Amino acid sequence: MGKHRLAWYNPIYPWLLLLPTLIGLIIFRILPIAGSFYLSFTDWDFLRAPKFIGIENFREAFSNPSFLQVVSNTLLFSVLYVIGVMIIGLFLAVLVNSKVPGVNFFRAAFYLPVVTSAVAVGIIWRWILSPNYGILNNFLQIIGINPPFWLGDKSIALFTVSFIQVWKMSGYYMIMFLAGLQSIPMSIKEAALVDGANPRQLFFRITLPMLSPTTFFVLTIAIIDSFKNFELIYTMTRGGPQNATNTLVYDVYLNAFVHYRMGYSSAVSFILLLGVGVITYLNFKMKKRWVNSQY
Question: What is the pLDDT of residues 39-51, one digit of tens each?
Fold first, then answer.
């Protein structure tokens, strides 16, 4: 009977079912990546045919002080973002990891900024932080504090945008940490309490070590996500003031669609890809030093 039921099967059938996905992957992913890699070695402005110039785009990038500032901005934004979403995401997850009445409302409320359009978030926060009619500056003036120029002062503009990005995405990482917290057996916590552990010891000696696989996953996703910071920067600062909030992703957009330097833009995008790959690889190499795989 089993052989009769599988008589229609042919090894080519799974490949036929996968064919539409494979075609889409090749046309919309692999070929554009390969084309962009070729363009990174060319000079192309959309009007003329691409001209092969070797590694000149990469040489120009690393010899340009403005590009080095963009790299510095990107790394600083990444550090602020990763630390912020991990700390706040874990804090929120601990808060909502209970079965008290109304906890689902708070889970949804904390997650709401994640599903809100980044463009809408940028516009609203730009209004809140406006130096002339922003609600935050007006409130600070009422209580006697002279507010700074949040998005116009190059010394704090990147920190401001980073804070807003952290505020928007913390709920996303809260869900991941919440899943990790709920996977920890209650029997282990109860045994620690019976042995006399206080809440602080319970969190740092039991919860955090057993949460390390989830923490590693969240860290990896956060690092990758930290380099995709286009929407808020485009909406709020356009890379200003004085290039203070310009990051690699936004620099790719500027060179490709504002300055029409598609070859140079492609080179910058592959520098970004290489940087993300190296950081992710190092993260995986250090995994065995702090992740408790036995849990």
Answer: 999 999 888 899 9
Q: Report how far apart, in Å, the C-alpha atoms of 131 and of each of 40, 123, 151 are.
A: 41, 14, 9
Could you identify the residue written with the tokens 């889970």?
Answer: 107
Distance CA 120, CA 236 (A): 10
Q: How confident is the model at residue 293 (pLDDT cuts 50, 70, 90)?
A: low
Q: Are 102 and 157 within 8 A, CB to CB?
A: no
ω before 241 within 30° of 0 (cis)? yes
Q: pTM to 2 decimals?
A: 0.90
- At 130, is the secondary structure helix, strand, or coil? coil
Contact 136, 129 (CB under 8 A): yes
Structural tokens at position 5:
């039921």
List, for residues 206-245, the tens digit of each pLDDT value. 889 899 999 999 999 999 999 988 999 999 999 999 999 9
Question: How many Å apart are CA 89 and CA 107, to the nearest integer?
Answer: 11
What domains can you pick out in the chain, each with its CATH number? Answer: 56-290 (1.10.3720.10)
Three-point CA angle 90, 212, 170, nearest 5° = 25
State the number of CA atoms in the 13 A half-sphere of 32 facing the CB.
Answer: 7
SS3 at position 164? helix
Instruction: Please compute, for residue 208, the number of CA atoms within 13 A of its CA located in the half-sphere on the CB side.
Output: 12
